[in-house]
Structures are given as structure tokens and as C-alpha cells.
Amino acid sequence: MKGYILDTDTWIEYFHRRSGVEKHIAETPAEQIFASEVSIAELTYGALHSKAVEKHLQEPKEIEQTFTVLPVVDWINDYAEIRHSLVSQGLSVGDFDILIAVTARHFDLTVVTHNTKHFSQIPGIQCIDWVDR
Fold it and tell me: Taking the model in full, what pTM does it have?
């Protein structure tokens, strides 16, 4: 499977209609764009803490209706190994970023993120940034 898995920060840019993310998504076939269950959880959490709860709760639902959402449960051992390796090297990468990265690695997807610094520390991950700033 080839395509792109969007990090939560990229989904946020998309829904706020900021930067070039909207253009990239429009130019990429929907079957090549994926989301992680992690991003759905993060977006739902963010919606519950926003001033426009109902509006923002629709965003993860839109992703689920339009794109394929990939599970994380099958990659838990990969997550543990990568986190252990990073910590042993004194590197700090967020747990959710690691889960998105191992999902990308499993499906041979490129991570689309504005947080390329963290993702580039994870072996076997390709990442790009669709945010124009």
C-alpha cells in the first residue's frame, strides 16, 4: 500500500483551511490518504475542549466517512521497541507520534506532518510537510 498517513497537526491545518494542506488533499486521490485511530482520538479530545464542540466533533466523523482510518492495536510491540530504542538514545518523541509512525511503517506510508523533527528520529519513516508557512 502506498500513500500518506496524516499526522493530527496536518488534519487540524486542513480543517482550519490554513496553509497548503487543503490543496494537497484535493490533489491526492482519497484512496491514498489515511488517518490513524490516534488522530481520531486526538481530534475528538480537542473538539471536547473547544468553544465549538459540535462543529469540531464533526471533523473526525468527516475523516472516517471520506478516508480510511487505520488501527494501531496490531503494532503495539513495534511501538514498544521503537520507544525503548529512542529513550535509550536520549531522544524524546511523543507516544502518539510513535504510534502513527509504526502504522505508517507497517503500511509503507509517508507521514505528512509539520512536526518533521520528531518523525525523522524514527527509523524507517519517510515524512513530508504539506504546511505552507
Answer: 0.88
Question: What domains does the chain contain, in order, with CATH numbers?
Answer: 3-128 (3.40.50.1010)
Q: What is the pLDDT of residue 86?
A: 84
Contact between 9 and 116 under an 8 Å Cβ cutoff? The reply is no
Q: Alpha-carbon distance 123 to 102, whole Å? A: 10
At 54-113, the pLDDT tens digits run 999 999 999 999 999 999 877 778 878 888 888 888 877 778 988 999 999 999 999 999
Distance CA 44, CA 38 (A): 10
DSSP3 helix / strand / coil % (the chain, rounded to 5)? 60, 15, 30
Residue type, 34: F
Whole-angstrom distance, CA of residue 5 vs CA of residue 109? 6
Q: What does the angle CA 131 – CA 73 – CA 82 come to, to the nearest 5 degrees?
A: 65
